[in-house]
Amino acid sequence: DAKTTQPPSMDCAEGRAANLPCNHSTISGNEYVYWYRQIHSQGPQYIIHGLKNNETNEMASLIITEDRKSSTLILPHATLRDTAVYYCIVRVASGGGADGLTFGKGTHLIIQP
Amino acid sequence: DADVTQTPRNRITKTGKRIMLECSQTKGHDRMYWYRQDPGLGLRLIYYSFDVKDINKGEISDGYSVSRQAQAKFSLSLESAIPNQTALYFCATSDSRIRVTQPQHFGDGTRLSIL
Question: Distance from CA of residue A57 to its chain's centroid?
């Protein structure tokens, strides 16, 4: 799986959009970008994933650059409950080969009141 | 995620003891995983199972064993616990039958301390 680089921490004001960047310059054509978050030692929670098109769901939006070397997770109206460590993970779609997620250290997002 | 249940939630034990952590799921997923997390670090994969008859080692399987007793149950054993296995352990599931990109769903974790 390709390596990802994320800032170790970020702050965002409550009610504002939180934009979390992720660099994955060695991503392969068949690798997806996944985002998970972990709130205070709870189990990680899936947020969103994408291949090359931008994606949006009820939790967030994912913007992937045209060259696919970086992406941004957007939480449109951050609340205090969004304070968590956010992990950007790049991996191939599972299909019989090695499976599992490779977690880095992620970005600790702190939402300020 | 209440659909993935881990027991016990907390466990303190002594070096050399045999320990079993259990995971059960009601999601009907075929794939199950065990991860460990050390303080300040991301999760690392210990073992994973594609189905009842398919068990695979992950990144850090030494010192651990697993058993997939049924599609819904996947247990992790430490045959002879040592202090550096003190960590937070997570079970996860995924369903590969709909799309191979299905995300993983995690339990709430087991906090294991080995003295």
Answer: 13
Count the neighbouring beta carbons within 10 Å of the beta carbon of residue A76: 12
Q: Under an 8 A CB cutoff, do A44 and B88 touch? A: no
What are the backbone angles phi and psi of residue B15, rounded to the nearest 5°? -55, 135
B44 CB within 8 Å of a chain A CB: yes
Contacts of A94 in chain B (CB under 8 A): 31, 94, 96, 100-101
* Nearest by Cα to B34 from B100, B88, B113: B88
| Cβ neighbours of B88 in A, within 8 Å | 41
φ, ψ of residue B26 to 5 degrees: the values are -110, 15
- Higher-pLDDT residue of A88, A98: A88
Concatenated DSSP letters of B26-77: SS--SEEEEEEE-TTS-EEEEEEEEETTEEEE-TT-TT-EEEEEETTEEEEE
What are the tens digits of pLDDT across the range A6-31? Answer: 999 999 999 999 999 999 999 988 88
- Tokens found for residue A42: 């709870």
Within 8 A of B44 by CB-CB distance, chain A residues are 103
Do residues A45 and A58 make contact, with C-beta atoms less than 8 angstroms apart?
no
Confirm if B45 and B55 have CB atoms less than 8 A apart: no
